[in-house]
């Protein structure tokens, strides 16, 4: 299976510049405890519930990405991303049901402040900026979960036998998911390469870093449950 090149192009440059911020995100204690199977179940249930609410607004981000696009290829690409999330929702619901959480319960849950801060930031970037800005805000989630999934799947320290979270881990290193991540990173790199200048890169870096911090706080929200 082809794997994303996390170090190539403008995305790789953003990821490298983020430095410790990025490593704090992909190496968060929430992730480590998932891999070891030691995460408290109440923490994971909180995360699953908030992740459902997150996906609702993340799908709005992809819809906005379509609206920010000016040609049919970009519109189709954004709608493919939106379709992937919509198709993922029943899987999320079915998985949450195994943990005793119904879709009705998730949909009626109060949004955590971390969920509100992250999702509304992404949408605000999209409304105020252009397609490239919005993609930079979406990237930490899209690429970060793939990096986490691949890293945990390939680590000798990850526990799979008897780990209640092994199914979740495997979902983010699946071939279908990884293909979508590769396409998104490639699209971002191609678009970003059309822009030159340190000022624009600094703006993208600020967006990327803020979204990365908000992703980290989302993990922490689950851990603090």
Automatic annotation (TrEMBL):
Pfam families: TENA_THI-4 (PF03070). Residues 18-224 form the Thiaminase-2/PQQC domain. GO terms for biological process: thiamine biosynthetic process; thiamine diphosphate biosynthetic process. SUPFAM superfamilies: Heme oxygenase-like. It catalyses: thiamine + H2O = 5-(2-hydroxyethyl)-4-methylthiazole + 4-amino-5-hydroxymethyl-2-methylpyrimidine + H(+); 4-amino-5-aminomethyl-2-methylpyrimidine + H2O = 4-amino-5-hydroxymethyl-2-methylpyrimidine + NH4(+). Its EC number is 3.5.99.2. Keywords: Hydrolase, Thiamine biosynthesis. The keyword Hydrolase applies. It comes from Bartonella choladocola. Belongs to the TenA family. This is Aminopyrimidine aminohydrolase. InterPro entries: Haem_Oase-like_multi-hlx (IPR016084), Thiaminase-2/PQQC (IPR004305), Thiaminase_II (IPR027574), Thiamine_Salvage_TenA (IPR050967).
């Amino acid at each position: 299976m082809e794997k994303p090149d996390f170090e190539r192009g403008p995305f790789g440059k953003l990821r490298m510049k983020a430095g410790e911020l990025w490593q704090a995100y992909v190496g968060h204690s929430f992730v480590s405890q998932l891999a070891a199977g030691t995460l408290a179940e109440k923490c994971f249930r909180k995360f699953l519930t908030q992740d459902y609410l997150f996906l609702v607004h993340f799908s709005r981000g992809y819809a906005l990405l379509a609206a920010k696009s000016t040609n049919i290829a970009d519109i189709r690409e954004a709608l493919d991303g939106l379709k992937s999330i919509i198709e993922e929702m029943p899987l999320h619901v079915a998985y949450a049901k195994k943990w005793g959480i119904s879709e009705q319960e998730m949909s009626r849950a109060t949004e955590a402040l971390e969920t509100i801060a992250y999702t509304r930031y992404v949408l605000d970037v999209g409304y105020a900026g252009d397609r490239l800005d919005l993609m930079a805000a979406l990237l930490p989630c899209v690429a970060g979960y793939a990096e986490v999934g691949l890293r945990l799947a390939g680590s000798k320290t990850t526990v799979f036998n008897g780990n209640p979270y092994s199914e979740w881990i495997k979902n983010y290193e699946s071939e279908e998911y990884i293909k979508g991540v590769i396409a998104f990173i490639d699209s971002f790199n191609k678009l970003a390469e059309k822009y030159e200048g340190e000022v624009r890169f600094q703006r993208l870096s600020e967006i990327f870093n803020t979204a990365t911090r908000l992703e980290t706080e989302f993990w922490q929200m689950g851990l603090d449950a």
